[in-house]
Amino acid sequence: MSGTLYGLGVGPGDPELLTLKALRILKAAPVVAYPAPDHGTSFARAIVAAHLGPHQEEIPIVVPMRVERFPASAVYDQAAETIADRLAAGRDVAVLCEGDPFFYGSFMYLFERLADRFPAEIVPGVTSVSAASARLQRPLAARNDVLTVLPAPLDDAALEARIGACEAFAIIKLGRHFARVRALLERLGLADHCALCERVTLDAERIVPLAEIDGDVPYFSMILGYRGAEAAILRGLGTQSAAESAE
Questions:
Q1: Contact 164/140 with Cβ under 8 angstroms?
Q2: Nearest by Cα to 35 from 72, 15, 60
Q3: What is the side-by-side order of every strand in the sheet holding 31-37?
Q4: Residues of the chain with pLDDT under 50
Q5: What predicted TM-score, i.e. pTM, was given to this entire model?
Q6: What secondary structure does DSSP assign to 1-60, as a single string?
Q7: Does residue 238 contact residue 244 with C-beta atoms inside 8 Å?
Q8: In this structure, are residues 92 and 28 in contact, taking their beta carbons and an 8 Å threshold?
Q9: Rounded CA gap, 60 and 47, in Å?
Q10: In angstroms, rounded to a whole number, what is the distance separating the alpha carbons of residues 13 and 6?
């Protein structure tokens, strides 16, 4: 009998947002793997650190912080084989995933290498986008609104086209792209309809109107914007719908 591969979503950072199912599987797993930077500590591990025990084997998956695809691909090849050894020996492996495993998560690269050989189960987690909306206390979208999630590295033309085709949007992976994205939103007249959400649910959380930000922002930040007509959301922006303005 082989072990089971678990992709555990551990949420955006607040340890209390870990689901009961993820916690149960985490505590029972003899092997725990997690992504880790080549400098510093693993964010995913830090979220669940209080629940790890000395009986568990830990496998850090050290991914170089580079933009090229090849080095990361080689890392996942090696990590998959290390995990495969444990699974073949009948040991379950829980892979920790920030947010949700299948929402821009690196777990997908392990899944594609292992799921055809071993049983696998995905445990969804709270995404950073839904957590940011909750902390902002403003709904993401309503009724027939289209919500679009946009990676900031997209070029301006692609961002503008996709924003123009939706009512609500989240721009993630800001980091070094922030100044360019902010300038685009200002040009589109949307800056006043956007909020910056940084390190949501953590002690260092910052949630402010986009217009108040000057300077750099970290990678773990996003912009939530709205250009629709739902009155309940517009009130959260401090604006009114066209119908309300006409009254």
A1: no
A2: 60
A3: 57-63, 31-37, 93-97, 5-9, 120-123
A4: 70, 240-247
A5: 0.89
A6: ----EEEEE-BSS-GGGS-HHHHHHHHH-SEEEEEEESSS--HHHHHHGGG--TTSEEEE
A7: no
A8: yes
A9: 14
A10: 19
